[in-house]
Amino acid sequence: MKALVLKAKDVPLSWEDFPGPTPQAGEVVVEPQTAALNHRDVWITKGLYPGIVFPGILGSDGAGMLAGREVLINPNIGWGPNPRVQKRSYSILGMPKHGTMAEKVSVGEDRVHDKPPHLSWEEAAALPLAGMTAYRALFSRGALEAGEKVLITGIGGGVALFALQFALAAGAEVYVTSSSGGKIARAMEMGASGGAGYTQNGWEKELANQAGGFNLILDSAGGAGFSFFPKLCHYGARIVSYGGSKGAVPNFTPQSIFWKQISILGSTMASDEEFAEMLAFVSLHRIHPVIDSVYPITRAEEAFERLARGEQFGKVVFRVRD
After folding, report:
1. If we measure between CA atoms, which residue out of 72, 155, 82 comes closest to residue 114?
2. How many CB atoms sit inside 10 A of residue 48's CB?
3. Domains of the chain
4. Which residue ranges in the chain fall short of pLDDT 70?
5. How far does Cα 6 stand from its chain's mean position?
């Protein structure tokens, strides 16, 4: 088969012949039609991820054919029985196990779900990893209720956009941040009520003026901006962190959270049950993932560079088969 092969860190990926998968007991072989990029894939190419194996095939997100059936893949491997937290041995498809950026991928039979019929191949590939991350952060951890005010930081990324779509579908009032005024404007075209550019001085005051405060804040960055969140929170609000790309949070004190009864919650990925719930939610509300761009997999380097530069608004998708 052909696959997009990672041979070493900081080495260009190559679309080349690679041994086909040998399914183990309980596994099936899916033939991906499409695969989608995540920041995880970019970090792996730079060596910034544990458990990297060379040569390897990246790709946590994929949709394709299984014996005439249109399917998409749950990228969880071994979440475990506890819905509150994954097992320490938990991993994600696409490293160290070979992933979806190939003509064939072997996955557990229970990882395969019917593709929601209202989704295109590109949309189906865009959904799994970012969709389940947004769903758990919003609903399981964030306990979102209809009518609440939600702030989603860093709009334009896959998880943030799914969180926007899911929150709107659930009846929330949503605000966003971005370094790009254009991305904020596009989010408002999708239904966001307002937003602010986090690179501008006083962005937190601008949001406070617009919204008056928030019941739920979803953040993937951390860093200096995180210290403003308690001031933006209503009493009893929740702050959910699902990433830390900006690093440590300076000037943060417990006085900012205890009197308001604010909960700070960590979230990552989702359980298998939440993955199934997310698919049902997407089908019920006929949500279409936002696609930034679609590349033939032979132009993978262009796609990786676009994601690394942060230019995207939505998911970057590969066509594995023409």
Report:
1. 72
2. 11
3. 2-127+289-319 (3.90.180.10), 132-266 (3.90.180.10)
4. none
5. 22
